[in-house]
Every structure is written in structure tokens, then in C-alpha cells.
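Model the whole thing, not chain by chain.
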Amino acid sequence: DTEVTQTPKHLVMGMTNKKSLKCEQHMGHRAMYWYKQKAKKPPELMFVYSYEKLSINESVPSRFSPECPNSSLLNLHLHALQPEDSALYLCASSHEGFGETQYFGPGTRLLVL
Amino acid sequence: AQSVTQLDSQVPVFEEAPVELRCNYSSSVSVYLFWYVQYPNQGLQLLLKYLSGSTLVKGINGFEAEFNKSQTSFHLRKPSVHISDTAEYFCAVSEGSTTDKLIFGTGTRLQVFP
């Protein structure tokens, strides 16, 4: 099984809402990632978890709050987002180590009104 | 600091023609290089990667890339493209000795016409 699943596929939320994005993998990977991708742009790294601990935070605003409850799950909690946060949010996972392949989910397309 | 340049934002090509997508990187240390493909409304999928060894790397779907250290390039090639190869292609680099962060290029849109 080389699949990373993400839910929901689409999400529309207002600026005062609280929502969560979910990501799951069963490949035994111990590194998990959140990326943000704007239209016609490359993915931008937001967070990296290694062995369920946050190892990289790319200076992401606090209205994005990641959580890794166990080795298979990764959440991204959203609160008080801005319209400019509308984007495709991609989750990825990989084995720990340099040069490892990252496996990406299909993404959650988020629209903030 | 490492960076990746994809010189061509769009590459139009006819079906069954060969194609080359260019990628140049900038890094002062040894690097790992990747090509990912993103089909419409999907996540990214690894095409191939270079870690060490042979400079010619073969990937999925008939793609290959050649690592050229002197020219700091990692161009992607396919001898005969298909309509289904229409997608966005991203070159990426990670500095193998310091971090496993991927730095992506700006992407090349390959459009294959019948």
C-alpha cells in the first residue's frame, strides 16, 4: 500500500470557522509533511513531523496548527484563516533519512471566504 | 543556499515527439535530485531521483534524467511522449547532508498535442 489519503477533498470555510484537515498513511513512514500549493506554483513546505514530533516549522502563522496523534495520522487544524490561505494543502510521508521518496496525497482544496 | 531553476514554464509538444524539460540547481554541497509529476487535481508522484552512482537515471513511464555535476543540471527526457503525459513537472533538490527538506522548482507545464 503506497497510498496517502487526505480528507476532505474540498473544504469551504469562513474566516471565523474552525476546521481540520486529515492525512493518513499505512506505509510505516515516520516522517510526515504538510505543504501548501497555490495555483500554478510549486508546493511550499509548512511543517515536518519526525517520529511524531514537530521537527520543522517554516514560520507558518499560528492560525495553522499541526498535530501528529500517532505514526499514521497527521492533522492540520485551521482557525481564523484569511482568504489568501485558499490553496491546495498536500500531505506527504516518507521513511526517515536523506534522499527518501516522499509520497503525496491528493490534497485538500481549501477555499476561505 | 540551495535553489532550483526550471527555465521553461511551458513546453508544448506533439504526440510521439521527444521532449526535454530543463532543470538547473544551485548548491554548495552534494545534493539529491528529484523529478515529480502532478496530474490535474492530483498530488505529486515521483518520476525518478538521483542519489549517487550512475548519472543516467531511469524512471517510470519511460522518463529518464541525466545528472551533470559540472553544469549543475538534471534535465528530464522522454523519447516519445503520449497525450497522457500532459501534466506539471517539478524538479526538486535536497541537500543530503544537512536536511531532507525538498526545494521545488517553479514547475514546467508539459502540454502534449495530438
